[in-house]
Amino acid sequence: MTAGYLLRSLLLLILALFSANASNWLYLAKLSSVGSISDEKTCEKLRGLIQRQVQICKRNLEVMDAVRRGAQIAIDECQYQFRNRRWNCSTLETVPVFGKVVTQGTREAAFVYAISAASVAFAVTRACSSGELDKCGCDRNVHGFSPEGFQWSGCSDNIAYGVAFSQSFVDVRERGKGQSSNRALMNLHNNEAGRKAILNNMRVECKCHGVSGSCELKTCWKAMPPFRKVGNVIKEKFDGATEVEQRKIGTTKVLVPRNAQFKPHTDEDLVYLEPSPDFCDFDPRTPGMLGTAGRHCNKTSKAIDGCELMCCGRGFHTEEVEVVDRCSCKFHWCCYVKCKQCRKMVEMHTCR
Amino acid sequence: MAGAIIENMSTKKLVIVGVILLLFQVFSFMVGGLIAPSPTTAVPYIATKCVDVVHHNQKNNKWFSPWGPNQCNKIRDFEEATVKRIEANNIVFAVHIPGPNKEMSAWFQFMLVILQFDIAFKMYNQIEDGAVVTIDVGLAYRDDSLSEWTQMAHSIEQRKLSCNFTTEKIIENEGRYYECDLLPFMEVGNVAHKYYLLNIRLPVNERKRVNIGIGEIKDIRLVGIHQNGGFTKVWFAMKTFLTPSILIIMVWYWRRITLMTRPPVLLERMIFALGISMTFINIPVEWFSVGFNWTWMLLFGDIRQGIFYAMLLSFWIIFCGEHLMDQTERNRFSVYWKQIGPIVFGSFCLFIFDMCERGVQLKNPFFSIWASEVGTELAMAFIIVAGICACLYFLFLCFMVFQVFRNISCKRSSLPAMTKARRLHYEGLIFRFKFLMLVTLACAAMTVIFFIISQVNEGHWHWGDYTVQVNSAFFTGIYGMWNLYVFALLFLYAPSHKLYGDEQSSVNANLICSGGHGANSGEDIQLTTTITHVDGPTEIYKMTGKEAQE
């Protein structure tokens, strides 16, 4: 363990105490050692949860495994979407998992909030469909008049439950602080935008089953998009995010675009308050700001993954590396790959 | 068929009958829209991946339950399986229907399951063209949550994967999913048990190329569709109410016909047959499906509907034919073979198709005619032939309606020149035809409009606090409408008692009306002669009858 790391951790600890960061619960993803969250005591031991989240945890023990899985897929997706950017969503072993990068009201923070709110909704909905949760759909949002629920009119969509749970669990931190803070407004907006990325991309699928399979009788349902698609949608929103500022209209505070010439953002758009740093250099005072030194880059690309931009003009090393690759493989649909090993020489570029 | 009630009824009475029928119509829409829930529910399931540690034989009857007591040894994803060196043949996809804390019920009537694969794109493990998945599937049931599972069906099925990858096939896009078509998986004609369990295996055999080249499967998703219990109850209640209504009017109708001295004419018999086929649909035998384990109810329902449709289509042809007002003597079923032929043949094709699909499903619920190449072609052939028959039928029908209208306009021009008796006869015929034509068109238009609304709409409208179930309203409303249609036919086209004893043997007036040539003097001469000789006296009776009524 280097001294730098120690210092960073120390700083982080202090920061964690002072800045209440709403994405702290993502730390759940790192708690693989806890095993299953099966009793109320575990809830209190979980790091990163605020008191109200602990209460939700105690009331919804069975859902917590899904929430943890949600945190994991949020981080995975973030790292996939940002793999070619200067900030590549690298996590630390501490709270908050993304370091201080996310504690400011930047674009990156907007993305993290959106993807994590979406991931909880996604994971809980999935858990509903695989039968892991007892009270999906049928408890709330039952439409129909009879108390018999499922027998009379079926249950409502699982996604409604997933989104509702995400709203109560993820948003509770912002609601706790009151509506006044502009960060709270921004986070709430981005959380909702993340969930909208799922809701507005639900695929409607239908099956005809009338007489002789005719469409006289047709049943349609909404299928959740794969999470990669949700990630892509949120990434697109990240690229077109709107910079906003808080303004008071009447008695309520709202976020409006800083540049009045831009058209106002919709529910689905991401918003941010501060411009992002350039993420070029390692900054010991900002945990998570690792800099781009040592990152691989693409020599031919002119985009952000190109060596020019990625290395912030510092230049790059080039070395010839032998890569062992798999080739002429045989696959089964699961768990079985038999490959030959092929060696080839590849030019590798690394930022200085 | 002469002197139907509708001709002798005063306009006021006719309006009253119309308003009453309309009220019932509105009522039947409201029953579906406000009381019933949506007709069907789709429940999504994601299969749990269970590990079969020692590969069991099929005979071993070991069932893997995804949750609850005695749940199987689960893995979260296949990366975990790779680490633990678990092979594809040891993985069992388990789905418990329904979800936790829920029970299936006999009120659900049927259950169909749709299969969908989540297949991730991998540069070096893509789906081959024309890939076929071989599925080893077992279905089991139990009626309380602690007893053993009992096998209901087991089969090895093949399904063709039709997946496409919408984005570019490059290494950056690895991990995105293919978009795969829904695969028909299972259809059960009744839901007699509380809990069902599906165990799916995808056995790999490299030598026989079984399940090779199907890509990297991430998940199996199923969608279970069943009728809502609430809708079934409303539907049964409606049937139970409609059956006696139609039966009573049928008895009344037939009594009227037997009271006459002449034998019933073809059209009268046809209307009666329509009543019988309507009653056949109405009789709520489905009540038994709640108590008994009858899996053939779906097939039986299809057959009943098919008979009614065939009867309705035949009725329209014969009704037009009997109102053609040319001099040909019809009144025999065999005259209409050309028009009825396509109906019978088309229905027969659909029947064979239905037997091939739902008939075989009685034995093997996983069977689908669309799964095999030959089956698909066969099914398409049946459907295309039935479609051609339908087109042929509509051509005939349109032509006949056109002919009737041509004759009507021809008659119209010669009406003033006729004697009063003859004029009343033709006016009656024309009114009778036009009335049915109008009502039929209105019914057909309603059916089509509501069908389109229910297809386009998402299924329910919010009306303040009320939710209107459009799809349910469509089903109950249209069902009620055709019942009222048959009811109105039986009532309004029954022979009028005001004319007992003076009915003619046929309505066919020996009149030549040759299309566009218009009425010429020669025709007029013939007209006057035929009136005095053939049905003059009856018309005079009728005229006096009408005058007496007024």
From TrEMBL, chain A:
<comment type="function">
    <text>Ligand for members of the frizzled family of seven transmembrane receptors.</text>
</comment>
<comment type="similarity">
    <text>Belongs to the Wnt family.</text>
</comment>
<dbReference type="InterPro" id="IPR009142">
    <property type="entry name" value="Wnt4"/>
</dbReference>
<keyword id="KW-0449">Lipoprotein</keyword>
<dbReference type="GO" id="GO:0005615">
    <property type="term" value="C:extracellular space"/>
</dbReference>
<dbReference type="GO" id="GO:0005109">
    <property type="term" value="F:frizzled binding"/>
</dbReference>
<keyword id="KW-0732">Signal</keyword>
<keyword id="KW-0879">Wnt signaling pathway</keyword>
<dbReference type="GO" id="GO:0030182">
    <property type="term" value="P:neuron differentiation"/>
</dbReference>
<keyword id="KW-0964">Secreted</keyword>
<keyword id="KW-0217">Developmental protein</keyword>
<dbReference type="GO" id="GO:0005125">
    <property type="term" value="F:cytokine activity"/>
</dbReference>
<dbReference type="GO" id="GO:0060070">
    <property type="term" value="P:canonical Wnt signaling pathway"/>
</dbReference>
<dbReference type="InterPro" id="IPR043158">
    <property type="entry name" value="Wnt_C"/>
</dbReference>
<dbReference type="GO" id="GO:0045165">
    <property type="term" value="P:cell fate commitment"/>
</dbReference>
<keyword id="KW-0272">Extracellular matrix</keyword>
<dbReference type="InterPro" id="IPR018161">
    <property type="entry name" value="Wnt_CS"/>
</dbReference>
<keyword id="KW-0325">Glycoprotein</keyword>
<dbReference type="Pfam" id="PF00110">
    <property type="entry name" value="wnt"/>
</dbReference>
<dbReference type="InterPro" id="IPR005817">
    <property type="entry name" value="Wnt"/>
</dbReference>
<protein>
    <recommendedName>
        <fullName>Protein Wnt</fullName>
    </recommendedName>
</protein>
<keyword id="KW-1015">Disulfide bond</keyword>
UniProtKB/TrEMBL annotation, chain B:
<feature type="transmembrane region" description="Helical">
    <location>
        <begin position="234"/>
        <end position="254"/>
    </location>
</feature>
<protein>
    <submittedName>
        <fullName>Protein wntless homolog</fullName>
    </submittedName>
</protein>
<dbReference type="GO" id="GO:0060872">
    <property type="term" value="P:semicircular canal development"/>
</dbReference>
<keyword id="KW-0879">Wnt signaling pathway</keyword>
<dbReference type="GO" id="GO:0030917">
    <property type="term" value="P:midbrain-hindbrain boundary development"/>
</dbReference>
<dbReference type="InterPro" id="IPR053936">
    <property type="entry name" value="WLS_GOLD"/>
</dbReference>
<feature type="transmembrane region" description="Helical">
    <location>
        <begin position="305"/>
        <end position="324"/>
    </location>
</feature>
<dbReference type="GO" id="GO:0044566">
    <property type="term" value="P:chondrocyte activation"/>
</dbReference>
<feature type="domain" description="Wntless GOLD">
    <location>
        <begin position="48"/>
        <end position="227"/>
    </location>
</feature>
<dbReference type="GO" id="GO:0035988">
    <property type="term" value="P:chondrocyte proliferation"/>
</dbReference>
<dbReference type="GO" id="GO:0006886">
    <property type="term" value="P:intracellular protein transport"/>
</dbReference>
<dbReference type="GO" id="GO:0000139">
    <property type="term" value="C:Golgi membrane"/>
</dbReference>
<dbReference type="InterPro" id="IPR047843">
    <property type="entry name" value="WLS-like_TM"/>
</dbReference>
<comment type="similarity">
    <text>Belongs to the wntless family.</text>
</comment>
<dbReference type="GO" id="GO:0061355">
    <property type="term" value="P:Wnt protein secretion"/>
</dbReference>
<dbReference type="GO" id="GO:0001957">
    <property type="term" value="P:intramembranous ossification"/>
</dbReference>
<dbReference type="GO" id="GO:0060536">
    <property type="term" value="P:cartilage morphogenesis"/>
</dbReference>
<feature type="transmembrane region" description="Helical">
    <location>
        <begin position="266"/>
        <end position="285"/>
    </location>
</feature>
<keyword id="KW-1133">Transmembrane helix</keyword>
<keyword id="KW-0472">Membrane</keyword>
<keyword id="KW-0333">Golgi apparatus</keyword>
<dbReference type="GO" id="GO:0017147">
    <property type="term" value="F:Wnt-protein binding"/>
</dbReference>
